[in-house]
Amino acid sequence: MTDQSPDHITQQIKTIYGDKADYLLRGRVRMINVWRPINGPIQNWPLAFCDATTNPESSLVPTDRVRGTTTGNTRYVVRTPGAKWYYQSESCDDEVVLFKCYDTDKSVASFGLDCAHAAFPIPTATEDTPPRESIELRALVFTYPDEAAEASMASGGTTVGYTQDRVKGAH
Length: 171
Hints:
It is globular and about 55 Å long. Helices cover 15% and strands 31% of the residues. It has helices spanning 6-17, 21-26, 147-154; strands at 28-37, 47-50, 60-67, 70-77, 85-87, 97-103, 117-119, 134-143.
């Protein structure tokens, strides 16, 4: 699944940032998830990540998520032949994973605008295998719109110190 749908993230930004939201949403917006185990190593139900280049956008199905009186929206992954999933076995407490949950920059779409992820049972785990415990943090990363820099770049010029996001290969 992806933790939140694009529409839900946009709504959260409007709720959190109020009058500043429209300005922030004109620039590039990313949500980065920082995840790590606690009480590792993880012996069952590790977190797996889908290679976004093998998982088409059409395999992500929007689904309401209701928690008490709050309704959000997430996207579940439909099984897709050829999708490649990866995980790190026996992750320890000092191993941190950062993955992108959302990106508005369509120029990086070939690398994936978000990262589908899920936990799964290890077939060799027993009833005595300790359950996975982990902690995560989601951070919104804004690249503020800079109209002067955009105009300069659009006309073939360069802008020193614009943003590293414009460096080829930076995602």
